[in-house]
Design brief:
The structure is a homodimer of 192-residue chains. Chain A is built from 9 helices and no strands. The first copy, chain A, has 192 residues and is mostly helical. The structure holds a DNA duplex (18 and 18 nucleotides).
Chain lengths: 192, 192
Amino acid sequence: MASGKNPARERVIKAASHLFYMEGIRSVSMDAIAERAGVTKKTLYYHFTSKDELIAAHLAQRDQPNLAAFSMWLAEAEGLLPERIEHFFERMASAASHPKWKGCGFQRTTAELANAPGHPARRIGAAHKKKVEQWLEDELRGAGIAEAAPLARQISVLIDGAFASMLVHRDPGYARTAGMAARTLVETALRA
Amino acid sequence: MASGKNPARERVIKAASHLFYMEGIRSVSMDAIAERAGVTKKTLYYHFTSKDELIAAHLAQRDQPNLAAFSMWLAEAEGLLPERIEHFFERMASAASHPKWKGCGFQRTTAELANAPGHPARRIGAAHKKKVEQWLEDELRGAGIAEAAPLARQISVLIDGAFASMLVHRDPGYARTAGMAARTLVETALRA
DNA sequence: GTCTATAAGCCGATAGAC
DNA sequence: GTCTATCGGCTTATAGAC
């Protein structure tokens, strides 16, 4: 479905994704998306019946790549679990150091749609974060942590806290702060 | 109209504050604010030269009450520091249980203004979070923690992570998750 | 309360593929 | 011939600002 079979549709999602992440949801117009995608608004509304649907499609497309990046950041790390977790947060910090970085798209979209709890994009965002949590739980259990679920939840809270703090203060150092906390929590769990 | 004890400017800020928090920044119009405040748009633009200025004023007004609430949540707690910190997060959870709760206004405003790093409201938001961090540091040091600064930073990341996670999943339980993590971190620091 | 700009969404028509 | 994907222009509502 999302293969190269539909150039225009793909270009629209790509354009929307870029603009939504860079500018925010509500400040981006459908006209701007159409222009950037190189299609007319008629084509845009042929593929997406509303802006809300396009917002959801944009987040849906970011789901897997995001999970893959997270997975890689942990997989590439060497050493024992505490060091590997800390490396993960170090990678968050370096990602946030890029000048175009503007926080977590899922979190920002959720914040901007706080008045629309049933919005399709909200569901996709929540599902994405749950997947992160589940992935963490599997990794922790695989590394020998017995009570993996609560620790995975705690680390996922630290991840989102790092995203939020780095954006507020424009300081990647907060990911390292979160990493130290996560390391302490993992070490404590390993001792139990 | 009904001025006197309730000056127009105050009513405008109060109306804006309510609408911005409930609906988000960009989805609230100046007309809606004027209507809710019971003033004409002429009066509104007499007190605030732009919407951006009003956004900043709204956050500035929330700064002190927010800090006061945080302070109370910790002050009212009994027991030792780890229990008191956990109580703080429990109070976050109960605040988030109210049906009208929609996350942290500072965090959501920052997210919505992610494309405007120099926006006055961004500076006020960042300053507010720094004050929270500083207040935590003072409290921790007062409770006998030597290296209070890094721990305060870690707990502030947990606070923002709790705000973000509770909003995404619409589940106050994430504040308790953050509370357990914070408790572990405090206990570890106390042992050092 | 008026102005100007711009937002989201809609419509009839059409060229090429099957 | 029908179907699919595309195009340009238009309507109505509402935005911020004075």
